[in-house]
Amino acid sequence: MKPTQRPSCPNFSSGPCAKRPGWNLAALGDVLVGRSHRSKAGKAKLAEVIDRSKAILGLPDDWRLGIVPASDTGAVEMAMWSLLGDRGVDMLGWESFGGGWITDVTKQLKLDDVRVLTAEYGQLPDLSAVDCDRDVVFTYNGTTAGVRVENLDWIAEDRAGLMICDATSAAFAMDLDWSKLDVVTWSWQKVLGGEAAHGMLALSPRAVARLEGFKPDRPLPKIFRLLKGAKINEGIFRGETINTPSMLAVEDALDGLRWAEGVGGLPGLIARSEANLAVLADWVANTSWIDFLATDAAIRSSTSICFIFTHPAVTALDSAGQTAFAAGVAAKLDAEGVAYDIKHYRDAPAGLRIWGGGTVEASDIEALIPWLAWAFHAQVATLPAS
């Protein structure tokens, strides 16, 4: 039967993600509109985003953090175009965004010495094969595959290469070991539910030394330029952005950061996300027709939680049929207003993807579960009898 209890917030999208509990437009009441982002007040707002982010994440004092254009994508591209080419690079890919970085390095940058290590959706490549004396580009958490690295033990402390980490679905939800990383990127619209188009770029001293000592043999567009003369452009890391940011989005980012501080900072955010995963893990353990795409619990994401249908009536369908089935389940939930945007990513295996970051309440996931069962069985009933 159709459930009666509904999630208080039906926003389970994996990006842009749910706003923090209780959010409304009044949260933006102190927004700086009609003013230059280069004004004293504007730069103070931008610097506050940087400072609060560094404090919550425990970024080391000698790291730099800046706001950059074009979301996490812009931050990753800026890092790759500015830093790669000094030595060989290992590119790791186990989902669509990591695959995109591989395409950029091999077909756009066209670097000569590139090794590609990949795995199917739901798995990780052999991380022991990574050569840390080469540069390495990888996603910490595969948003489209529901897979995260278990830890960074595979990265050498005495490495010669730079570790460039796309952490857009991991920052503020997972404990990043900064000693093993050199470049880390994320966006506002993921774990803290901010607005789109703005990225964050964190650089270790080793990354800065590379920037100042290596000159790429390619032109760099203005929005990728991190140097001023031969030195790092320190203004970027004080809130003097390369392009014009949305001050509405800035105010919203500040609201999310203040909320994060109020729920216990990074430990509180991690606990909230892990609690969401635990609710879904209990459900999967007691449900015969669904499973995690990442079957190894050690590498299972707590933010972008991906599922496949295991019911024989669904697995008997061809790929197009399984995609249509998943779309039908998602459409039923959308029509009921209980879960929006939870169909699998377009390149991933057919199934569902539920965001479990800290802005999502575990009680809402608990309320969603009976609706998942209802929508699944309703969609099975539409299949031809075998």
The CATH class label of the largest domain is: Alpha Beta
The CATH architecture of the largest domain is 3-Layer(aba) Sandwich
Strand content: 15-25%
Structural class: alpha/beta
Count of all domains:
2
Helix content: 25-40%
Number of helices: 9
| Unreliable stretches covering 5 or more consecutive residues | none
Cα end-to-end separation = 24 Å
Q: What summary fits the major beta sheet?
A: 7 strands, mixed
Radius of gyration using CA atoms only? 21 Å
Kindly describe this structure:
The protein is an alpha/beta fold and 386 residues long. The chain is 34% helix and 15% strand. It has two domains: 28-260, Aspartate Aminotransferase, domain 2; 265-380, Aspartate Aminotransferase, domain 1, CATH 3.90.1150.10. The protein has nine helices and 14 strands. It has a seven-stranded mixed sheet, sandwiched between helices. A three-stranded antiparallel sheet has the order 12-13-14. It has a two-stranded antiparallel ribbon with strand order 5-6. A hairpin with a 4-residue loop joins strand 5 (141-142) and strand 6 (147-148). The longest helix is centred in the C-terminal third of the chain and has 21 residues, at 265-285. It is globular and about 70 Å long. The two termini are 24 Å apart.
